[in-house]
Amino acid sequence: MSAATASPTAGPVRGEPLLTLEGVHTHIGAYHILHGVDLSVPRGELTMLLGRNGAGKTTTLRTILGLWRASQGRIAFAGRDITALPTPQVAGLGIAYVPENMGIFADLTVKENMLLAARGARRIEQVDTQRLEWIFGLFPAVKKFWNHPAGKLSGGQKQMLAVSRAIVEPRELLVIDEPSKGLAPVMINNMIEAFAELKRSGVTLLLVEQNINFAKRLGDGVAVMDNGVVVHAGAMRELAEDTGLQRSLLGLSL
């Protein structure tokens, strides 16, 4: 079938925008944090959101999820305007968020944390067994410490649990704030491998990251923020190979 006669019911195409922000402003109290953010996250790819501390990266993620409300502009997911949707409805569309503090329940076991994240299950037996085994393959520590209190896990193990909770049900978009923060190099390598596998499975990822080597190894695309706006967007490879651009945007070299 030629392109001209292709079926109009064909499925979504890898690389087309899954999430877009157009001219998004966000105020938090008296503070004007985002000043017109334009961002495109292609389907099936991993997009890195970089920038100096205070550039507006976390505010951008929280605005996407509806945790903070955009005061101006438009946010669209899979062609649907989600700008004014409350957070539970945004999550219900297939977007999962892992905040910087990971948001796990320290007094509950790993299993109980996972069950809470599986909205369609009241007992762990109701969670998709094949999906759990897939998650255990990505993060073996989740299986190893299944019945342990989550608060007793190491920092890297808590991060793995946080991501596992986010994907215990199928998601189209995974939004993660600084997944490598405070992790040992071996844990960072494990996280990179897991994210690469998630991308191969068809999940789209948007990551805020300060670890530049992490970003360089994993990112397909990159957007750099400064003072509440995106000042650069393009291929991660191009930024990684251009030391002059790195210094001008980030004040450092990859």
UniProtKB/TrEMBL annotation:
Pfam families per UniProt: ABC_tran
Domain of life of the source: Bacteria
GO terms, molecular function: ATP binding
Cited SUPFAM superfamilies: P-loop containing nucleoside triphosphate hydrolases (SSF52540)
Keywords: Amino-acid transport, ATP-binding, Cell membrane, Membrane, Nucleotide-binding, Transport
Keyword Nucleotide-binding found: yes
InterPro entries per UniProt: AAA+_ATPase, ABC_transporter-like_ATP-bd, ABC_transporter-like_CS, BCAA_Transport_ATP-bd_LivF, P-loop_NTPase
Domain ABC transporter as annotated: residue spans: 19-252
Family classification: Belongs to the ABC transporter superfamily.
Descriptive protein name: ABC transporter ATP-binding protein
Lineage: Bacteria, Pseudomonadati, Pseudomonadota, Betaproteobacteria, Burkholderiales
